[in-house]
Amino acid sequence: MIEVKHLSKRFGDTQVLSDISAVFESGKVNQVIGVSGSGKSVLCKCIVGLYVPEQGQVLYDGRSFYELEKEEKRQVRQEIGMLFQSSALFDSLTVLENVMFPLKMFATVEPGEMMDRALHCLKRVNIDGKENAYPAEISGGMQKRVGIARAIAMNPKYLFVDEPNSGLDPQTSILIDNLISEITEEYNTTTLVITHDMNSVMEAGDNIVFLHQGQAWWKGSREELLDSDNKELNEFIFASGLMRKVKEAMKRG
């Protein structure tokens, strides 16, 4: 579990986050949603320690991250897996080498064990026979799956995912959402997904935090989301017209 308590962050005269408090639960897909510029990515970077907030705390299973010693912070970071928006695979490395990369950097096991772990992770994300391919030789959806395999290679307790469906077609997006949900439940990870994709929210979101102008404007489940009377939240989720149709269909049903 990750707890954020009264987190605030500013850049110069611009207040980006204001008094954010939230709980991200283990074994659930926790999502932070909001329009571009609402503070989603800054919040994520504060949680993983890339930015230091002016005030507030981030607790990893009770450990206050900003109060930890250097070696203790390093230990927490080794418990974190990350899937970046662009997958961020190394073009010069094969699929297998990409997944093995964090193991070579941080693991203290023999090379054969590293390879076995990497192959297991690739199998878990349903990639077979592409171990020796390079990222440019596989589809965008496969690249995302390789990114997930690399993110779980160290068997992380905490998984951070940035816009997992960016650039993907709707069918592949659903597959990625389902995969993230399955891995979260299987490994009991605390998964935090940054997204503005409402299809992803309705497909995979267990615990949702809506940011508006740097504030935690609404919190709840995806079931509660459709019944919310929060004006700014409704403007966000119904912007495309799609979710309005979903809500109307649910009422009729």
What is the gist of this entry?
By secondary structure, the chain is an alpha/beta fold.
Structure description:
- With 253 residues, this protein is α/β, with parallel strands linked by helices.
- It has two domains: 1-79 and 164-253, P-loop containing nucleotide triphosphate hydrolases (Rossmann fold), CATH 3.40.50; 81-155, no CATH class.
- The chain contains ten helices and ten strands.
- The chain has helices at residues 40-47, 70-78, 95-106, 111-124, 140-151, 170-187, 198-204, 222-225, 231-237, 242-252; strands spanning 2-11, 14-24, 28-33, 55-60, 63-64, 80-83, 158-162, 190-195, 207-212, 215-220.
- The strands form two sheets. Strands 6-7-8-3-9-10 form a six-stranded mixed beta sheet, sandwiched between helices.
- The longest helix is centred in the last third of the chain and has 18 residues, at 170-187.
- The mean pLDDT is 88.
Distance between the termini: 36 Å
CATH topology of the largest domain: Rossmann fold
Largest sheet: 6 strands, mixed
How many domains, as an integer? 2
Which range best describes the helical content: under 10%, 10-25%, 25-40%, 40-55%, 55-70% or over 70%?
40-55%
CATH architecture of the largest domain: 3-Layer(aba) Sandwich
Report the total helices.
10
Give the key terms.
single chain; 253 residues; alpha/beta; Rossmann fold; 2 domains; four-stranded antiparallel sheet; 10 helices
Which helices and strands, and how do they pair?
Elements: E1 2-11, E2 14-24, E3 28-33, H1 40-47, E4 55-60, E5 63-64, H2 70-78, E6 80-83, H3 95-106, H4 111-124, H5 140-151, E7 158-162, H6 170-187, E8 190-195, H7 198-204, E9 207-212, E10 215-220, H8 222-225, H9 231-237, H10 242-252
Parallel strand pairs: 3-8, 3-9, 6-7, 7-8
Antiparallel strand pairs: 1-2, 1-4, 4-5, 9-10
